[in-house]
Probable queuosine precursor transporter (Hymenobacter setariae), 250 residues
Amino acid sequence: MPTSTYAHKKQQLYLVLSGIFLVNALLAEIIGVKIFSVEKTFGLTGSLSAGVLVWPVVFIGTDVINEYFGRKGVLRITFLTVGLILYAFLVILGTTKLVPADFWLDLNKTDGQGRPFNIEFAYQSIFRQGLGIIVGSLTAFVIGQVLDASVFQAFRRITGSRFIWLRATGSTLISQLVDSFVVLYVAFYLFGNWPLAQVLSVATFNYWYKVAAAVLLTPLLYLAHYLIDRYLGPAETTELQEEALVDKSV
């Protein structure tokens, strides 16, 4: 493959993977304010942050980027994502300061059953997340990503191109153990009003959900590898993976 074509495919691949990673990380942060009952929703005991529902896609994105673009490739999109998440929250915070239009309040003053409803209060409650949640989630995100990227590469140096499932699952087991507890501890214990027992209970359930999701989604990881290898070609795939192993940037 000509150098220019290889460089173009390499760039396009990184852009697509980064886009998938970024949008799911941003979604997880925005919807993560909601804690839902797993028992009432799925019939299983426990509570989860809604953000963890899309977090497995971030796991896969992290591992695939790491496989082809190395630790630096993961950290580059991680720090860009953090910056864009902060930007998104600042914009959202700014909109909560805007004075609502009277007709908008009047048109939405009752819900579907005719009960009194304050749409401005609802908007504020949903979108104006506390500083603790933002600090906790971004701190956990960065720590988790650095751990994931580092552990993944350590496993890869040991296993080579074999055992994709081992390095993917192993890095998730370690990184998410830290991530799951840090985010809730900072957000809801240090800055919030949760007792430590509640933090540990929800964090433990969140962690085991992430572990189960990482294991169950392993076939998707292999599918992603298959599609990317076909897109790049055998020789180019090997070259890109070797670059990633020595931690070169894109």
In short: The first helix runs from residue 3 to 31. The CA atoms of residues 76 and 249 lie 9 Å apart. The chain has one domain: 3-245. The mean pLDDT is 83.
